[in-house]
Design goal:
Peroxisomal Thiolase, Chain A, domain 1; single chain; 10 helices; binds oxa(dethia)-CoA; alpha/beta; 4-stranded mixed β-sheet
């Protein structure tokens, strides 16, 4: 028994923020952002309706429709996010209500930009253990609310969005996974947005996303090729057997460097970071949905998904379409 993706969906807010728009707010320009990151524009929520739960529910509805199953057949909703709307309830339970998945258990998972891959791997584990059959896996973020809009080194990088897949038990196909974490590097990427309100402790400062960009860059260009290679070795396949490497969309230069280290052509590394920026845990399922909707994925195609980010965390999944 293995697991297979049978449906994909995504949702992007309609409000487009270009590099020129940001140049009016902070000391930056299109040339710097484009050449250092490949990002030209991103989507940012601009109305109260578009909370993380709304983005997630829209992506989830689309994925369930694409899968051709009823929401009532979903056993578990696993939602990866680092930008939930509140501490409680979790976003997955909000999605459960919004899409009518009345029989589903709902839980959130936070592994920053690795979140979707971790959630997909967790779904695979539940399915192969025979515990659940149909699992909705979502990556959803409104990163915009965790950003210091006066900090040019981070505010130009991120965007909002959500992507979702339906995973089901299958007797055919293959799946391998690799995951890792290094808490020693926890300070490379942080967001302490929630103020403490304990009567017996001093309140802490509200802090937004802080990143040691070069530290994370160096980590990404070394670790992603390593974990992608490891997952291919586990599956006993080579890069030639892989149709696409669907990698977390953080920076075009990271993707090019990974391609070089893996010795694969950029044709195999699809990109949409130019249009959506870094949407954290949502970037991989959004890209997967684009590939699926363009008809680029055929049954039996092998794909490697790989995410990396805060924690530090990293992971890869080798899946068969
Ligand atoms: O999804 C989570 C994972 N995150 C990532 O993968 C991010 C990884 N890191 C990166 O992608 C890159 O490190 C960045 C895109 C964040 C930064 O690029 P960089 O080439 O590492 O630039 P830098 O941080 O070394 O900064 C170079 C210069 C600095 O000025 P000085 O000190 O050389 O005068 C910065 O102050 O660029 C300046 N700078 C900017 N200038 C214009 C930083 N941000 C901006 C900006 N516009 N937005």
């Amino acid at each position: 028994m293995t697991s297979k993706i049978i449906g994909t969906g995504s949702y992007l807010p309609s409000h487009v923020v270009t590099n020129d728009d940001l140049a009016k707010v902070v000391d930056t320009d299109d040339e710097w952002i484009s050449s250092r990151t490949g990002i030209k524009e991103r989507r940012i929520v601009d109305n109260e309706k578009e909370e993380t739960a709304y983005l997630a529910s829209m992506a989830a509805k689309a994925a369930v429709e694409d899968a051709g199953i009823s929401p009532e057949e979903i056993d578990l909703i696993l939602l990866a996010t680092m930008s939930p709307d509140q501490v409680l309830p979790n976003v997955a339970c909000e999605v459960q209500e919004a899409i009518g998945a009345i029989h589903a258990v709902g839980m959130d998972l936070n592994a920053a930009c690795s979140g979707f891959v971790f959630a997909l791997n967790t779904a695979h584990a539940y399915i192969t253990a025979g515990i659940y059959k149909n699992i909705l896996v979502i990556g959803a973020e409104t990163v915009s609310k965790t950003i210091d809009w006066a900090d040019r080194s981070t505010c130009v990088l991120f965007g909002d969005g959500a992507g979702a897949v339906v995973v089901t038990a299958s007797e055919t196909g293959s799946y391998e996974m690799v995951m890792g974490a290094d808490g020693k590097k926890k300070n490379a990427l942080t967001c302490k947005c929630r103020p403490m309100n304990n009567l017996f402790l001093k309140g802490s400062e509200l802090e937004y996303i802080k990143m040691e960009g070069q530290e994370v860059f160096k980590f990404a260009v070394k670790t992603v090729p390593e974990c992608v290679t490891e997952v291919m070795e586990k599956a006993k396949v080579t890069a030639d057997d892989i149709k696409f490497f669907v990698l977390h969309q953080a920076n075009q230069r990271i993707l090019s460097s990974v391609a070089k280290r893996l010795n694969v052509s950029m044709d195999k590394i699809p990109m949409n970071v130019d249009r959506y920026g870094n949407t954290s845990s949502a970037s991989i399922p959004i890209l997967l949905d684009e590939l699926n909707k363009k008809g680029l994925l055929q049954e039996g195609d092998k794909l490697v998904l790989s995410g990396f980010g805060g924690g530090l965390t990293w992971g890869a999944s080798l899946i068969e379409w």
